[in-house]
Design a protein that fits this description.
mainly alpha; 148 residues
């Protein structure tokens, strides 16, 4: 697959992700029940832990790894390969279920589908750059420990 086409696909996946996040944020009320705020806060905490665990030169919104990146298996990355995507889902579920709207339910479904596609795309790119990736990540959940 030509690199230019792959970059376009990666850009499209990121665009869909951020459009979905915008609808989740602006698609309804923020009058969440206590458990919604707890779930939302959990998503933010997972994001912060992931950012701190990731290491230098690894953080990017694009599904293609940066040049000179390294595989991280520190901190939360020992349990989940894509904790930042998990954080997006936790926050999205919190608002879509805690203060539901048709827009939010649609956006949550679109973001979840998009993240699954983005994970597949990203893992192909990581494997191409780091052939040891599948072996290093063996036994580490893609998204949710014990489930995916």
């Amino acid at each position: 697959m030509p690199a230019q086409r792959v970059d376009r696909l990666g850009g499209l996946l990121v665009l869909v992700q951020f459009a979905g996040i915008a609808v989740l944020v602006f698609g309804g009320s923020w009058m969440l029940p206590w458990w919604g705020w707890l779930l939302f806060a959990s998503g933010i905490i997972v994001f912060l832990i992931a950012a701190l665990s990731l290491g230098n030169n690894n953080l990017t919104v694009m599904p293609a790894p940066r040049q000179g990146n390294s595989l991280s298996k520190r901190g939360i990355y020992r349990l989940v390969r894509h904790p930042m995507y998990l954080s997006v889902l936790l926050c999205g579920i919190a608002v879509a279920v805690g203060a539901p709207s048709v827009w939010r339910w649609g956006a949550l479904a679109a973001v979840a589908d998009d993240l699954v596609l983005k994970i597949r795309h990203e893992e192909k790119r990581l494997t191409a750059l780091h052939p040891e990736y599948p072996q290093v990540m063996k036994g580490v959940a893609r998204l949710v420990p014990g489930v995916l």
